[in-house]
Amino acid sequence: MVVIVGVILLIAINIIVLSINKRHGDLPYGIGRIAIYIIAPFQNTVTHSIRFVKNVWSQYFFLISVAKENENLKKALSYAIGENEKRNEIELTNYRLRKLLNFKKTIDHQVLPAEIVGKDPSPWYQAILIDKGKSDGVEKGQPVVIPEGIAGQVTEVLNNYSKVLLIIDQNSAVDALVQRTRARGVIKGDSTDRYLFKYVLRKHDVRVGDTIVSSGLDGVFPKGLLIGYVSEVVKPSSGIFQDVTVAPFIDFEKLEEVLVLLNPLKNEHVKK
């Protein structure tokens, strides 16, 4: 408001001075000084005010432009990050699939790749749901594996889906042996990070770090599939068995794809 009043006064005074100057020529020295004395402060104030408003106005539009540019850059960065994450996920998926394909070449049996689409919500069972079923040739009892070893066994089959009981479940059992010494026992699920190697005779040599593989004698899992490694051995002072704990080679929390062994025993019979 002050600026507006000042501008009006400055314009009015300038008009008066110019009018007098036009009519009477050059003003007397005293009057000119008085005019300058009166007009100069207003001109100075108004000039600075106009510059200030102009700078604020320019800065305002500059900030709007910068904010808009910043928003566009954020969107572009977010898009780039999203695309990069997609590429990383594709690369990881391809890596896992290549491992499965390479592992598939080492197995004599027909295999069916499957993707994990769910987990059993029950706290009493360690089971997963895969996207292959009866229409794909899946049958109850078939082994499920990955390159790191045995994952589990098919327990229920629908037309397009199947339920797999993981080997870490307490209801699972795999006839197994120590790869180094051929000492036999039964792998029982105990938790997500260990198995119990049951019924191993005290007289047999079992050491921490020994690799445990399937024996093939349970009629379900082919011989030689990886299971885990011995993480603890305790030989009680009495009894005929030793207590052996085995750590899985598989990280069951990160399972995403598996291979179902289709009728492995039938294939073995044909070979024989």
Structural account:
The protein is of the alpha+beta class and 272 residues long. The chain is 40% helix and 29% strand. It is built from three helices and twelve strands.
- Strand residue content: 25-35%
CATH homologous superfamily annotation of the largest domain:
Rod shape-determining protein MreC, domain 1
| Largest sheet: number of strands, sense, barrel closure | 6 strands, antiparallel, barrel
Q: Based on CA inertia axes, which overall geometry fits?
A: elongated
> SSE order, as H and E?
HHEEEEEEEEEEEEH
- What would CATH call the class of the largest domain? Mainly Beta
Helix content: 40-55%
CATH architecture of the largest domain: Beta Barrel
Mean pLDDT: 78
What are the key terms here?
3 helices, single chain, about 270 residues, alpha+beta, six-stranded antiparallel barrel, 2 domains
Question: What's the structural blueprint in terms of helices and strands?
Answer:
Blueprint: H1 2-24, H2 29-106, E1 111-119, E2 127-130, E3 143-146, E4 149-157, E5 162-166, E6 173-178, E7 184-191, E8 194-201, E9 211-214, E10 226-234, E11 241-248, E12 257-261, H3 264-271
Antiparallel strand pairs: 1-2, 1-12, 2-5, 3-4, 3-12, 4-5, 6-7, 6-9, 7-8, 8-11, 9-10, 10-11
Helix pairs in contact: 1-2
